[in-house]
Amino acid sequence: MHHYAIVNAFSDRPLAGNPVAVFFDCDELETNVMQRIAAEMRLSESTFVSQPKHGGDVHVRIFTPVNELGFAGHPLLGTALALSLRLGKSTLNIETAKGIFPFTLEHPERLGDAVVAHIDMVQPEPVIQIYTQTDALLHALGVPCSTLPVEMYDVGPRHVFVGVETLEMLSALVPDQRALGQHENMAALCFCGTGNAWRMRMFSPAYGVVEDAATGSAAGPLALHLARHGVTRFGRTLEILQGVEMGHPSKMYGLAQADGEKYRLYAGGHAIQVAQGTYFI
């Protein structure tokens, strides 16, 4: 028997944002059972919380319906809120397979029986490389050409960024999911915007997600991608709206800072716990 919570990440109201299922006290659960539960939940990710192994407050494993991730944004942001409510802490150091990451919760408040708070998180420094299958990817997405070089940012999940010329083109995208599924271990992030305001859509058959409502692990990398190519500047906080076409609008904040050849990435947004229950297994 395991208690769990459902948290909508990157939203301050129910029925919006990107939901994650957070399971507590999972030290005795085997990996294959976690994977099967994640598949049964039919959410883009589920997380499983256990005792810390490396000096953090907790250890968290993240599963899509088809595989495990070393790091992911919206699942960890939602998990941070659920843990804060459970442990009574406003700062948390969460262990994942990619390392230990600090989370800070601010301004928690009740909306009826739900609790909402703003959460900031540090993100892993990515490994960046040119994507070698650009032509096939653009064809699968239905994008004639990218406004910036098509590059991959590996932060655990591997994000490939494709710039789209107009919001109308971005909203109208209907990718060929079968062709996109030939691109293994990656998510395609299509983006458009100016200044501080950006829109994004994410497609990833490889991660078992036709489309994602909020890809928090891509918020910092998008800010970095734009700054590296001179579209914005380092140290500028971007507002990123995602999930509009899915009817689940999600608002994220992304920030990239440069220190010589090293980068520091941050993301933030609201989360709201909307449900809790017990899973009998």
Quickly describe the structure:
It contains 6 helices and 17 strands. The protein is of the alpha+beta class and about 280 residues long. Strands 1-2-3-4-6-7-8-17 form an 8-stranded mixed beta barrel.
Principal-axes geometry comes out as: globular
Sheet of most strands:
8 strands, mixed, barrel
Number of strands: 17
- At the fold tier of CATH, the topology name of the largest domain is Diaminopimelate Epimerase, Chain A, domain 1
Mean pLDDT: 95
What portion of residues belong to β-strands? 35-45%
Classified in CATH, the superfamily of the largest domain is Diaminopimelate Epimerase, Chain A, domain 1
Secondary-structure element order, as H and E? EEHEEEHEEEEHEEHHEEEHEEE
Work out the radius of gyration. Answer: 18 Å
Structural write-up:
The N and C termini lie close together (5 Å). Strands 1-2-3-4-6-7-8-17 form an eight-stranded mixed beta barrel. The chain has six helices and 17 strands. The chain is α+β, with helices and mostly antiparallel strands. The longest helix is centred in the N-terminal third of the chain and has 15 residues, at 73-87. Helix content is 19%, strand content 44%. It has helices spanning 31-41, 73-87, 134-141, 167-172, 177-180, 219-228; strands spanning 2-9, 18-23, 46-50, 58-63, 68-69, 91-96, 99-111, 114-123, 127-130, 151-154, 158-163, 187-194, 197-204, 209-212, 238-242, 250-259, 262-279. The protein has two domains: 2-118 and 271-279, Diaminopimelate Epimerase, Chain A, domain 1, CATH 3.10.310.10; 127-268, Diaminopimelate Epimerase, Chain A, domain 1 (Roll), CATH 3.10.310.
